[in-house]
Amino acid sequence: MRPSLVIVGAGPRGTGLLERIAANAAELYGDRELDIHLVDPHPPGGGRIWRHDQSPLLWMNSTAEDVTMFTDDSVEMAGPVRPGPTLAAWAQQVRDGAVDVPPGLAAEAGALGPRDFAGRRLQSGYLEWVYARTVAELPPGVAVHEHRQSAVRVAGPRDGRQQVWLAGRPTPLVADLVVLTLGHLAAEPPPEQRALTSFAAEHGLTYLPPDFTADSDLSGLRAGEPVLVRGMGLAFVDLMILLTEGRGGRYLTRPDGELAYLPSGEEPVLHVGSRRGVPYHSKIGYGWTGERPPLPRFFGPAEVDALLARPGGADFTRDVWPLIAKELGFAHYHRLFTAHPERTAVHWTDFEEKYAATDPGSAALQALVAASVPDPADRLDLEALDHPLDGVRFPDEAALQAGLRGYIQADLDRRHDPAYSPDQAVFLALLSVYGQLTRIGDRGPWWHGFFSYLASGPPGPRLRQLLALSRAGVVKFLGADVSVTADAESGRFRASSASLPGAEVTARALVEARLPEPSVAHSRDALLRGLYTDGAAATPDGLLRVDAADGRVLDRSGRAHPRRFALGPHTDARASGAFTRPGTNAPSFRQNDATARTLLAFLAARATKDSHAADQ
């Protein structure tokens, strides 16, 4: 029987793994035969999240020049670099006639500049092209078989071939190795969400639990009615777009340059809040110039080695976060002192020496910064960044709306002003930190939320639209520390916040604007849940535990399964994204390469063993 590999999940992560298999096959597998089965009910390349079949109004969250599926010389890996175009360069190839795409995508590619934010349907076209190119680059003996079905179960002994059962298929796929590249998955709701769902059903209300917004049924959100929204991240931005432009509203620019929104009359009124009470920070709207901070500096391989060697493991708050905070601060001040020295009071070399010797978060560090950086606006305060509205109380509703608009406008101004380029240095440090953390494993949802809040916010134009919607009364801000209750007496949802004490908003609709928390035990994916039932280990937060070196699934005794692997956001080695910006030593690319090389080495050894057995 031919050697066989099953990859469950054919979206960007599965495509990226396949690209690394193609890149490493000549060295590790030669001209041997191999069957690769790709299992996904959605088209390969884009998968579910990046499929073509979604609203053309939805955008990418990164500029076109910052999106790539291809490795470069920055990636620390054993396999070869296989260069390829960024999304921006690929769009240029479309314009040049070197790549054929449907007419609608060709028009979008024709208008796309390197610093523009592409629509998700154009990204789908890019990912489909990457997939097709990757398949074409596989050795002649490797055959790819696509299965547009869902995998529901994996079975088989640790030391034998695995069986992957597909929905609606009477016999399983037989595989030497199985890799799960599942992406974001639906989950069974926790008790609070179940209670809200029951309350909504009992009182004829609309409750939308966490989900990928493009898949949510928004028809129950009625025109003109209040809708409570918990969450101000990227899922909220999608919701905002689909309920405004998606219902016929439009924007125009006034003579003074201010953006205005013209309602269609079909929009609900979105009352939105969250723990922080503010949207994610805008994407930075200028390019990098000058010297980059030398990263990693205080949180690199040596520090991670020391953390991993700690008896009993490292505690994130006590051991890891101080190193991260010091790394972020180093990047911030390196940029401030080297690019804006007129705003500092000492020489960089003097500051750096003292900074390196001072404990993060200490009074000594605060005194050093205060003496060296005169303007408080030039100092990095991570606690204030994470809690922007702590202690802020507004006297009335109008003041709350004006205050939040002022906050968002100030963020937009800062993020598009190179005078505040230390913000961009912190962004680079966040990427560096994320790359190191993959070796340690998942450290809880707070870090991922903080990273996304600072580094993965919406494009600036989206926040300008949010301001226009607020001025038009289509969006109303609730503030920070939002609390939502199910009020049995009125039969409605009721929301309040710490930012406007005593005020409440009632509504017949409530939307949880975020993705479900990844959880192996509570996943709606039968295959993943079955792995957990069969003994796969999970973190306290519900993520599948894997070997950080190559993604092999761990059991509850810590043993790595020799034939089962997992990559992606459902694991404790989750990276920041299946595709990323060039030149950043992306952890997902490093993981893909390491896993691909492990797979190919195993399969080559198995093929050699079978060949020897056949000769005897």
TrEMBL record:
Q: Region annotation Disordered: residue ranges?
A: 562-587
Q: Which residues form a coiled coil?
A: none
User: Organism's domain of life?
Assistant: Bacteria
The protein's name in its UniProt record: FAD/NAD(P)-binding protein
InterPro entries under this entry?
A: FAD/NAD-bd_sf, HpyO/CreE_NAD-binding, L-asp_N-monooxygenase_NS-form
Q: Which organism is it from?
A: Streptomyces ochraceiscleroticus
Q: Where is the FAD-dependent urate hydroxylase HpyO/Asp monooxygenase CreE-like FAD/NAD(P)-binding domain?
A: 6-184
